[in-house]
Every structure is written in C-alpha cells, then in structure tokens.
Amino acid sequence: MKPVDFLDREGQEMVVNAIREAEKNTSGEIRVHIDDVCETDAYEKAVEVFRFLGMDRTAEKNAVLIYVACNSKVFAIVGDKGINEAVPEHFWTDIISMVRGKFAEKKFAEGLAEAIMATGVKLSAYFPYRENDVNEQPDEISYKK
Question: pLDDT tens across 8-62, in order?
C-alpha cells in the first residue's frame, strides 16, 4: 500500500482537523507522518523523520511527531527536547495503548485523531496556548515520497 492510500479522504480530513483542534489548546506542534515500510526500529526512524521535517526547530522545542509505517504495521511517537524535559516518564504510554487498540480494530483515522487530541490535552498542561502563538509546523499529514 502506498502511504497516501493509508487513509481515505475522510480519514485524512479527520486527522488534519484533529491537529488543528488540538493545537488550539497548546503551543505544542503536532504532526503525523505516514511511511510505507520501516526497516529499522520505529522510534529511531521516527526521530530521523522528525529531524528531516525540521520539527526540532520549534522555538520551545515542543513538537510531537506521530510516525506510522503502514506496510510494516509499526508506529512511534517522538517528542522534542522541551517536552521530554518537562513531562514525567511514561508520558506517552496511554496514547500508545490507545493507538494500538484502534489500529488493531483497523480504525486508523480514529486512532490517529484520538491520539492527536489526547496529545493536545497532555501538552496543554506544560505548553498552554498563548494569544501570540505561531503555527510553526504544517497541520497537513506528510508522506514518504
């Protein structure tokens, strides 16, 4: 399957809308990247993609990437340095469990949207939205070309 075919048009809209909604409550930046295969550890690949997308260049170091390799059936969540220094250990555990559960039911868009919304809620406690917030990262899903 091609990464662009992982979510149908409705699913893509659901994910992008979730990003926009979640970011209304936090200065954090949330992105989703869909790859085809992951030939290494999913977290390591997600870190590589995180850097490639320039997500490590946000002012507060508060970006989050949800990485999915659709053909390898793996995913990972990467938070930038500012998040990792502020949040408790196992911060992502419940979100990872949520995604796994939805993906097991083949509810990919719903799983991603719920994970995005939960991420926004969690980040708002550490990185609340401010009036002068600038959207530093695109809200659209990125794909392996």
Answer: 999 999 999 999 999 999 999 999 999 999 999 999 999 999 999 999 999 999 9
Distance CA 63, CA 54 (A): 10
* CATH assignment at residue 111: 3.10.310.50
Compute, in degrees rounded to 10, the torsion defined by CA atoms 51, 55, 61, 62: -130
Task: Output the pTM of the full model.
Answer: 0.96
For residue 2, give every residue at least 6 positions away whose Cβ sits within 8 Å of its Cβ, in sequence order, or none.
36
Residue 145 burial (CB count, 10 A): 5
Owning domain of residue 81:
3-143
Which residue in this structure is represented by tokens 């220094």?
Answer: 85
What's the domain count of the chain?
Answer: 1
